Amino acid sequence: MCFSIMSMESGTTPVPLTLRVRRACDHQDMPFQLRYIGVPEGTGNNNSRPTIVRSSIDIGTSASIIEFLTELGCRVDFEYMARGYMFRKGRMKITVSKIFKLTNGKPQDTVEPISQSYLVELSVLAPSGQDAIAEDMRNFAEQLRPLVVLEKVDIKRMPMSLP
């Protein structure tokens, strides 16, 4: 689930703050995960970097996190389900998943695929300023090029809700 709330920074125009809540549907006893993903660094010259660099914070929470965020004034922007596989290559995490939209509420039985394609995501958790990892990611992405089209996603052009 993707939640948003308007944030006021030192008297400027309101900026939406986005928080994501996720959980494993097949392991109900696992904790929920709350994630904040920051804005891309260096957005003016984003094409010169091999990857998008953003700060992120992950927190393990209880199931009451949804109620807590709602009480804070957050609203649900969209909700989706991802089914797929995760692989590791060193510090890199590669996920290959199909994205589904929920059709009639919450049950897992009522999902339909958004597309026939799979989403391939390559990510690394790294301290700020480590650009060598970005080159490793680009080299790995080049190896996948015959099978998949990998590209950086322009966050500003993404729709705020899933179809």
From TrEMBL:
Localization, UniProt: Nucleus
Annotated InterPro entries: Mediator_Med18
GO MF term (any one): transcription coregulator activity
Keywords: Activator, Nucleus, Transcription, Transcription regulation
GO biological process, one term: regulation of transcription by RNA polymerase II
Gene Ontology CC entries for this record: core mediator complex; mediator complex
Function (record text): Component of the Mediator complex, a coactivator involved in the regulated transcription of nearly all RNA polymerase II-dependent genes. Mediator functions as a bridge to convey information from gene-specific regulatory proteins to the basal RNA polymerase II transcription machinery. Mediator is recruited to promoters by direct interactions with regulatory proteins and serves as a scaffold for the assembly of a functional preinitiation complex with RNA polymerase II and the general transcription factors.
Family classification: Belongs to the Mediator complex subunit 18 family.
Subunit structure: Component of the Mediator complex.
Annotated protein name in UniProt: Mediator of RNA polymerase II transcription subunit 18
Protein species of origin: Apolygus lucorum (Small green plant bug)
Gene name of the encoded protein: MED18
